[in-house]
TrEMBL record:
GO CC annotation, single: cytosol
Keywords of this entry: Lyase, Metal-binding
GO biological process, one term: pentose catabolic process
Origin species: Streptomyces viridochromogenes (strain DSM 40736 / JCM 4977 / BCRC 1201 / Tue 494)
SUPFAM superfamilies: AraD/HMP-PK domain-like (SSF53639)
Region named Disordered: 1-32, 238-286
UniProt GO MF annotations: aldehyde-lyase activity; metal ion binding
KW Metal-binding (keyword) present: yes
Native organism taxonomy: Bacteria, Bacillati, Actinomycetota, Actinomycetes, Kitasatosporales
Biased composition (Basic and acidic residues): 23-32
Statement: the UniProt record of this protein carries the keyword rRNA-binding: no
Residue span(s) of domain Class II aldolase/adducin N-terminal: 38-211
Protein name as it appears in the record: L-fuculose phosphate aldolase
Amino acid sequence: MAEQRGDARGTGSVRDGAPQAGEPRRRDVRPEEARAWEDLVATARRTVAEGLVVGTSGNVSVRVGDTVLVTPSGVPYDRLEPDDVTGVDLDGRQVLGALVPTSELPMHLAVYGTTDARAVVHTHAVHATAVSTLVPELPLIHYMAAALGGPVRVAPYATYGTDELAENMLRALADRSGCLLQNHGTITYGTSLDQAYDRTAQLEWMCRLWLTAASVPGLSPSLLSGEQLAEVAQRLSGVRPAPLTPSPRTPARPRLPPLTPPPPPTGRPCGPPGHWRDAHCQSGGR
């Protein structure tokens, strides 16, 4: 979810006091959904372990067919169990589980509805959130911005869980696989949970890098140009750049003949080892 909430259930199991959807489970969990849920929970726990979220803030989802599995609202990730699978269809109707889906469900569904995403990760990473309060776009401090599609934009602030926030996010995500949410956090997507998570980690690292470089008094960090980033994007896509050819104004330098070794010395030594008798020696030179 977007805001941090405490666990209202005490020390019981997830189902003892967690928010309930008020709608019974509509069908059983399929094997592929059970496996995806395990991966989702592992990814959600990783966001906490690596400091990208605090408590129950942030959320993770993964698409399996036409079902979106998503972290539930207000449940610490270390308490999620296999039976806690929470899923909705692409219209947001709950089809799996009894726990209430994250309050940020509109953002997740907006991503799935407009991209080829199979997984979405939303965090409140500290450095990324700090950058979101300072600039409308993360400056091109590192070439790995190309891995997110280009300069990372900042979506204007809107209240968490609203359609307005989802719309702002989509505009910032145009031709991108990640963006910053002003005064809020990050959101990235990918073809897998691992890829979505890695993009989040990369975005947080770039934000930390820029904040560090920009904090040096009296100096401004050097930034990459759009052309430089485009070249990196081309390399990341697997397309090899065209080979360089000599400029018509600068003809190619002609090949030089190969060097030949000097002839071996002849004569007898005239001094220490390595010195040979020659005209110089014969004349008394040393």
